[in-house]
Amino acid sequence: MLKSKPTVLTLALAAAGMSVLLIPQISQAADEVKQPTAEQSVAVETTEQNSTQADTTITDDLPIERIQVKGYSRSLIDSLNSKRYSDTVSEQLSADDLGALPDVSMADALTRLPGISAVRTGGQAAEINIRGMSGGFVFSTLNGREQVSTSGSRSIEFDQYPSELISSAAVYKSPKASLIEGGVAGTVELSTVSPLSSDKQHSFVVNARGMYNDRANEVYGAEEYGSRLSFSYQGKFLEDTLGVAVGYARLEQPSVATQFIGLAYNDSKELDGLENDTNGPVDNPNYEYISEGFEVQHLGGVETRNGYMGAIEWAPVDNFVLKADAFMSRFDSEAFARGYRVKFGGRNASVANPTYDGNSLIGGTFNRTSKSYTRVEIVNDDNQDFDEVNSYGINADWQVTDRLNVNVDVSLSSAKSDFRNGLLWSNVAVDANADTPIFDENVSVSYLLNGLDLPDVGFNQAEAFSDVDRVMVSKYGIYPFVNEDEVQAYRLDFKYDLDNDVISSVEFGARYSDRTYSNDRSVFEYGNDGAFSKSEPPLKLTEDMTTVVDWQGDFSYFPAYLAVDLDKALNAWFPDGVPQPVQTWGNAGGVIDPKGYTTNYSWSVLQSGDVYEEVLSAYVMANIDTELGGIPITGNFGVRMVDTDQSATMLQNVEGDVELGAQNIADEIGIINQNYARTLQGVSYTDYLPSVNLNFKITDDSQIRFAAAKVMSRPPINRLAGDISASVSDDGEINGSSTNNPFLMPFYADQYDLSYERYFDEGAFVAAVFYKNIDSFIDTIAIENFDFKGNGFNVPEYIIDEISGEQIATTNGTYTTAVNNAEGGYIRGLELAYTQVFASLPDAWSGLGFNASYSYTESEVESITNLGGDTATQDLPGLSNNVVSATLFYAYEGFETRVSARYRDEFVSEQVAINEQVVNFDGETVIDYQASYQITDGLGVLFQVNNLTDEPTKSYFGTEAKTGTLQYFGREFFLGFTYAM
């Protein structure tokens, strides 16, 4: 007598920690045990409710205990089932019914998986890191189609994808030839539902939750309450040949934070005659680095996300399916940032009682002098961000013969971000009621950083910060920044099944995509934030347009300040509309000003441009299904060819020379510049990406996976945008610079994965090791004797000396640009995942389970940073050596509860609220809690707390003594219900 082999869902059920499925002994020949029978495969039923029940069903005269797994447990079971039978090294999330995933966004959901962590922005997970690599190395698809982003780069902002509208997600840590290229760290595949695949004829789900933030009452003007609401429907019609699915999800949540921001050490100062005592710089007693200053802010506002999903699926005959689907997300944020900004005054600042960390000044008393600009600015920022994400696709799947399958897919993915940063700076006047107000230059600021705790501060003008008779608005500015990104793609795939003992099938296909990215930047300003302007004088505040704001909680020792109602203020000052002169970005020569402004400005188009990217790829892949030495082996091997043609628009400064292409180019407000010539520059390249995935089933319950591949990630698309500037000096030397570079090449890596998976009666264990060797990273270098003409620059062969009139031959000088030059290196690590069910406990405790994962990652890749003054090394952005995720859950008779914790130790990422400023972040532990109760088969209630311990975000420059951002978000409480029918 033989025991039957556990079914797929049985094993997944045990590994997910729900319960043990007991199947009686079945008389069966050994060769019939190889695959689960049809009867066995349906022995476990799953539904969308919140408990585990058992009954006994007779199938073909054999008793099979049927266990119904519901709610959160169902997604765990389906996830592990998908992972076990995947043909790559992957992690899986699944929720067959829309609305089943409980997380606010897919960013939160993905962080439950091994080796995956998140960077929190505004308290919410947004960008994810995979195996110690930042979001720029993560490629993302929706229903198998490339997704573009509102981030202005290639990094997807997963908080724009409501979990209620996503049915499953996969993180492919090893690629295969049929997957779209682009992820050195990994590929995240999100999927919406396939309505014809639903087990139910019709289903309708409603989720409604109210939310509350417990720090909102500390921030004047912040919203305390928000809500989540979602509807979804799936149905099958016309004898199951037509399927329809629609979904809508709305999130309206308060955005709350209180933060201290230390600014970078961007200036230095020589000190003559300073004694090298215990408080002085340790490396050079006559040299020190000075921070730009710091900010203390209240943040508040509302984030509103509306998500829409629709799919229609038609199968008129058994061998043909046509599906059209759409996904749209509208994520709008209107937020304020209020408080004050301290500017220390640069190298000419007068500093008493200095305190140092290394050579960097971390404390002292700063006094304004005639040579320094030391000041305190009262800030009232008004930020608006309107993001749009659209994804549309049509897919036809045709089983031409028993062996040949053809799949055709056409898609469009687009994203747009319209960000407007409005700033209102106020400074202290001697008397704001005077006919000609005078800037109060009696400024003294004392401070001492306390590492990852709030600093000690003192201001001699503290009482004036909240005095409407002392504070005046000295500058107002609006900074629009619009990104648009769109990719059209066409894909054709074939699969042909073989009658072969080694190769079960062959897949091959091709894909063409056409991507266009654009960014547009404008600047509108009035006044001067460093002093009072005579031509655009300071603006008087009145009591009806201001409110005195006190700090609360940990920040209560900071002095109060004036919050300004921007609408009242601007309407009072500018009843005919706000004047909009354009402030300096560069040289103003050759500018025609049709509006008659006298302000020194240049031209916003220099900050704008377009990128074009065409990709043609093709692949061939063989699927393996064989045995070696009695061990079943499955997997695939293949190669993907990728041909890329990338280019970007450029504006080259030709000093108005018409023969070199100079044109009259106008920006969006009519400012005309005559200095520049339009060009289009770029590069083409072809890559071959081989891959192999092998799965060795060493026993019925355990398997070993091996994978190897060459992978690539293209550079951030905004780094390809043109911002070239080149000029000729009076002696004829040509010099130029570019923050970006349309000639940047991808990041390449060779990677290897080895993993072991073991499934047992009461759980599962998975161990994996990986190794990546990355060729290079982007760096900024200065290239001397650069061949400007040979590289497509429109430069003159000579210039005319203005005094002598003689011709001076031009010579090549230095060109500073971004290149793939930073030294690469390895990334390697270990991942462990363990699930345990406590089946031996009494019945009331049989729903108790535990799931945990741990990953260790290290890399030899380092970069140099000077943001903290002293030169220091930084790890690879996104890398935490240790990442831990754990969930303890319990379910019984309709009640379910769980507590989840996510820990990552210190890592490197962009500074919160400061773009393109990469700093060190302290480790953090985020704990979430959830409880639910199923009242009836259709109605359930839920309570949830996110960030249970109010974990802040803390960063620093090189050493913890040089404080970066200390940001406190508060806890979020949710209470609501789910109704399904």
Automatic annotation (TrEMBL):
Protein keywords: Cell outer membrane, Membrane, Receptor, Signal, TonB box
Source species, domain of life: Bacteria
Primary localisation category: membrane
Domain (TonB-dependent receptor plug) ranges: 90-186
UniProt GO cellular component terms: cell outer membrane
Transmembrane spans: none
Family of this protein: Belongs to the TonB-dependent receptor family.
Name recorded for this polypeptide: TonB-dependent receptor
Pfam families noted in UniProt: Plug, TonB_dep_Rec_b-barrel
Residue ranges occupied by any TonB-dependent receptor-like beta-barrel domain in the UniProt entry: 482-948
Organism phylogeny: Bacteria, Pseudomonadati, Pseudomonadota, Gammaproteobacteria, Alteromonadales
Compartments in which it is found: Cell outer membrane
Span of the signal peptide: 1-29
Native organism: Shewanella gaetbuli
